[in-house]
Design goal:
- The chain is α+β, with helices and mostly antiparallel strands.
- The protein has two domains: 3-128, Beta-Lactamase; 147-314, Alpha-Beta Plaits (2-Layer Sandwich), CATH 3.30.70.
- The protein contains eleven helices and 13 strands.
- The strands form three sheets. It has a six-stranded mixed beta sheet with strand order 7-8-6-11-12-13, sandwiched between helices. Strands 2-1-5-4-3 form a five-stranded antiparallel beta sheet.
Length: 320
């Protein structure tokens, strides 16, 4: 080997030794032949401890001492078995790992034909933090796009998409389902007499009470102004009427506080049951027609489409 080649190798080793990236070489039997200080720092070990250590023993130390690579497993031996199923399967492998100290590293493994493995570990903690922040912002924006800002329930777009998908599932499995369209009675007078802030409080309270009357998996949204909608999957007529009465009573029987004022608020409800291959638009049109029938019949009631005597619940006319 020439003098220039020796100098080149020496300089390369000097660069590796002072590098912030971790470097290590494993023998074909997975024994550590050498590494730089940055690689030792990842595992909170010194050169004396690291040189000659087997990969499996290094992972066991990380697991027991909770230093180095975070191993989320109950059984380290089972984890090692799974790790060996991935390692050395390809000449090159790139993967991310997190450490017990919350740092993140991008590891690369390069395997020679003779079996030796070169490992490089580059810290990517800052990138992972930014990635998490960006992901959180995207999730927040997505939630805002699908949520009604005032009442914090699904907006019209989200409700229609979710209800349409659930309607298709119920039809495919031949399960009964129902769509409610709900409208606060005389809501315009609340805004006119008590102001829009009081109107907002009424809308928020109404949304809260409706949600309280539903099952966790029922689909509920505000579809515009003082109008809400509910989709009940796997719900026959009798149960749909019980839910509608529960919603109606929660509004009519308990005044809503809007600042210093207590307002008696009622709600009219139109109900459509799914028959055959009805589309969401069909159900909405039917529920909307039933809602207007409830309004014509005195408000503070639920009507089923097509109008049937047993479908009506009534406790008098609303006062707001």
């Amino acid at each position: 080997m020439s003098k220039s080649q020796l100098l080149y190798q020496q300089k390369l080793l000097e660069f590796i030794d002072v590098s912030h990236d971790g470097y290590a070489i494993l023998a074909a039997d997975d024994r550590l032949l050498g590494c730089n200080q940055a690689f030792c720092d990842i595992f909170y070990q010194d050169h004396k401890t690291m040189l000659g250590i087997l990969f499996d023993d290094l992972m066991r130390k990380s697991f027991v001492e909770r230093k180095g690579i975070r191993i989320d497993a109950d059984d380290i031996e089972q984890w090692l078995t799974q790790a060996h199923q991935r390692r050395r399967q390809n000449p090159f492998r790139l993967f991310e790992v997190d450490l017990w100290d919350n740092r993140w590293f991008l590891f690369s493994e390069q395997v020679l034909s003779t079996g030796e493995m070169l490992i490089q570990a580059k810290e990517i903690t800052k990138q992972k933090v930014l990635e998490h922040q960006l992901s959180s912002k995207v999730a927040t924006l997505s939630e805002l796009a699908l949520t009604d800002e005032l009442t914090k329930v699904a907006n019209r777009r989200c409700f229609v998409e979710s209800a349409t998908a659930e309607l298709s599932r119920c039809q495919r499995l031949q399960l009964p389902c129902a769509l409610f369209v709900l409208d606060l009675d005389f809501f315009k007078s609340v805004n006119d007499v008590f102001g829009h802030q009081a109107g907002d409080e009424v809308l928020k309270a109404a949304a809260h009470r409706i949600k309280k009357a539903l099952r966790e998996y029922d689909i509920f949204g505000r579809i515009g102004g003082e109008e809400f909608a509910v989709f009940l999957s796997e719900t026959p007529q009798g149960m749909a009427l019980q839910v509608a009465e529960r919603i109606r009573a929660l509004l009519a029987n308990f005044p809503i506080k809007a600042g210093p004022t207590e307002l008696c608020v009622t709600m009219s409800i139109g109900i459509a049951l799914c028959h055959g291959n009805s589309s969401f638009e069909d159900l909405y049109t039917q529920a909307d027609a039933a809602l207007y029938q409830a309004k014509r019949n005195g408000r503070n009631r639920a009507e089923l489409y097509p109008q049937q005597t047993e479908a009506t619940t009534e406790q008098g006319q609303g006062t707001t």
